[in-house]
Amino acid sequence: MGAPVVDALEQFLPTGVQAIRVLWTGGDRIKRVGREYHVAKSWLVSRLQALIDTGRVQVPDSEQARQLLDELMAFEIKITDHGSVIAGARSGAHDDLVMSLALCVLEDDSPGIRYRRLPPHADRGLSPDGDDWLDLHRSPSTSW
Questions:
Q1: How many CB atoms lie within 10 A of CB 50?
Q2: 0.85 surpassed by pTM
């Protein structure tokens, strides 16, 4: 929506409620500065896809969910000849539902969450507890 719109909306927030701003950036990174995120669409949508693939986010069987999944399938991440990352809906498609859901799962401070997709196999070089995906928010003191 842009900073001026967010500035105007913040005036109407109830006492004690603070907005968290999210600014789309290029590349494939996320950076938090105070109450403001600078996040690449590619990072955000990749995270959403991982959460859906691992069952952390479940999509119901509804028309809106099918629209969401269609948008997710139409989402493209391209790398230009100069090495820049460009992400968004294919030409003629939308990504509004995808980006809305991705924003809902941007923050996750849940401790000790594991992402499981495949059954553990000792010969695949997995962590001792069998996870094939490390916790995206693993604390620095946790090691294996």
A1: 15
A2: no
Q: How far apart are CA 75 and CA 73, in angstroms?
A: 6
Buried b / exposed e over 118-140, threshold 16 CB at 10 Å, is: eeeeeeeeeeeeebbeebeeeee
Q: Structure tokens of 69?
A: 């999944």
Sign of CA dihedral 113, 118, 124, 130: positive
How far apart are alpha carbons 95 and 76 in whole angstroms? 10
Give the DSSP H or E segment for 79. Answer: strand 75-79
The token duo for 55 is: 């069952």
In tens, the pLDDT along 47-71 reads 888 888 888 888 888 999 899 889 8
Instruction: Please report, for residues 45, 71, 107, 113, the alpha-carbon distance to residue 89 in angstroms, rounded to integers and kept in the order given.
Output: 11, 7, 23, 30
For residue 118, give the DSSP letter: S
Give the residues of the chain that fall short of pLDDT 70.
1, 108-144
Phi, psi values for residue 126, rounded to 5°: -80, 170
